[in-house]
Design goal:
InterPro entries: TPM_dom. It comes from Vagococcus fluvialis. This is TPM domain-containing protein. Keywords: Membrane, Transmembrane, Transmembrane helix. There is one protein chain. The protein is an alpha+beta fold and 238 residues long. It has a domain of 155 residues: Diaminopimelate Epimerase, Chain A, domain 1, CATH 3.10.310. The protein is built from seven helices and eight strands. Strands 1, 2, 3, 6, 7 and 8 form a six-stranded mixed β-sheet that branches. A hairpin with a 4-residue loop joins β4 and β5. It is elongated. The two termini are 15 Å apart. About 11% of the residues have low confidence.
Length: 238
């Protein structure tokens, strides 16, 4: 499938990626996935063969199954946030044609070039990898405009409170007397307390799915048999 020269070229590029971006890249071809889905097969091969960089095992495995003529990328660790679903879909679009033309080396060369470019850019703005959940999550932040508005509102509220308290104290110190004898009135009525029935309604709220969504800058994720979380968008056939 690949010539020795092509394999040597891939190894040089992958080593460069490891040294520069602390990210592992695995290209794996097979004729059978032993009855497993491509995602599960790729994840297990990656997890049980010691691939990945650092505690979060950052990296990517690109599986090409010649038996079913399908391909599937699987990401791990911080690479999940960098190679999100949208970016993996773009890589898929670019390599589909050379794969269908049986130009496998060119397809993998394009993949490595695009992966390097995305690693250089880093995670999509507003997203980061959460090692505790194993997912790419949206970062919540407050803009400078919102901070300024909050400060202005707080200042106005404080000023109003100050003037209200000041006015109250001024009223207490004055000699004003309310004519309560002339202005008062007492009405006595017979009141009965009636106990009404209490009604409690319940509503079942379903739990969200375990996989995160892949829209926008996010990544759809799944868990391999090792218990490690992986990203797995951008698969296809050729």
């Amino acid at each position: 499938m690949f010539t020795p020269e092509e394999i040597n070229s891939f190894e040089k590029e992958i080593n460069q990626i490891r040294e520069t971006y602390n990210t592992d890249v695995v290209i794996y071809t097979t004729f059978s996935t032993d009855g497993k889905s491509l995602k599960d097969f790729a994840a297990d091969f990656y997890d049980y063969n010691g691939f990945g960089v650092g505690d979060t095992k950052d990296g990517l495995i690109y599986l090409v199954d010649m038996g079913s003529r399908q391909f599937q990328p699987v990401t791990t660790g911080n690479t999940i946030a960098v190679l999100n679903d949208n970016r993996l879909e773009r890589i898929k679009t670019r390599i589909s044609e050379p794969l269908s033309e049986q130009n496998y080396a060119k397809a993998m060369e394009i993949m490595l070039t695009d992966v390097t470019s995305y690693l250089k850019e880093g995670p999509v703005k507003g997203y980061r990898y959460n090692p505790e959940t194993g997912q790419s999550e949206k970062v919540r932040y407050i803009s400078a405009t919102k901070i300024i508005i909050a400060l202005v509102v707080a200042s106005i509220s404080g000023a109003l409170f100050y003037f209200r308290v000041t006015s109250t104290y001024k009223l207490k110190k004055s000699t004003y007397h309310y004519p309560y004898r002339n202005q008062s009135e007492v009405n006595l009525t017979d009141a009965q307390s009636v106990k009404t029935a209490d009604f409690v309604t319940t509503r079942h709220i379903p739990k969200p799915p375990s996989n995160s969504g892949g829209g926008g800058g996010g990544s759809s994720t799944f868990t391999g048999s090792s218990g490690t979380s992986h990203g797995g968008g951008g698969g296809g056939s050729f």
